[in-house]
Amino acid sequence: MVQTSAPAEPTFDAVYAAQYDPLVRLAYVTTGSRPAAEDLVQEVFVEWLRRRDDVREPVPYLRRAVVSRSTSWLRRRILERRYGDTEAPPPEQSAPPDGTTTAVRAALARLKPRQRSVVFLRYYLDLPVDEIASALGCRPGTVKSLLHRSLAVLQEHLDDD
Fold first, then answer.
1. Distances in Å between the alpha carbon of 130 and those of 15, 60, 77, 127, 144?
2. Domains of the chain and any CATH numbers
3. pTM score
4. Which of 22, 36, 84, 154 could form a disulfide with 80 if both were Cys (CB 3.0 to 4.6 A apart)?
């Protein structure tokens, strides 16, 4: 009798190498801050390392944790700006974008953070609706609805330009 062994668990290093950049981009879509996105992703990987024995599928766990922490980070910043005396940090410096990039960024800025996350997960990471629903902690129908509304807002904004 031949015994088949269970598939080997992916190593931390392999998952980190494959998922770090996409997760940072996912966090950046919500936070708008590269340093904050990197910090949030690092925190999520540390948490996963602590809970590794409890997590069966690391990639969906990591995506959901990044979305959750990014949303929480954004809510805290909104409250800080509303009730705090701190000034907003200066915008990040990067190469000047071309006209198309500027229009797309402006259109994406009109979306709510959850809508931006859905658009990013679907069209940048090319995830199916079920995986997006898992990452966001909602039903597939909600993902479809969010995508539909998001695309309508993007189309309307891009048509105006």
1. 21, 11, 30, 8, 10
2. 8-88 (no CATH), 98-161 (1.10.10.10)
3. 0.67
4. 84
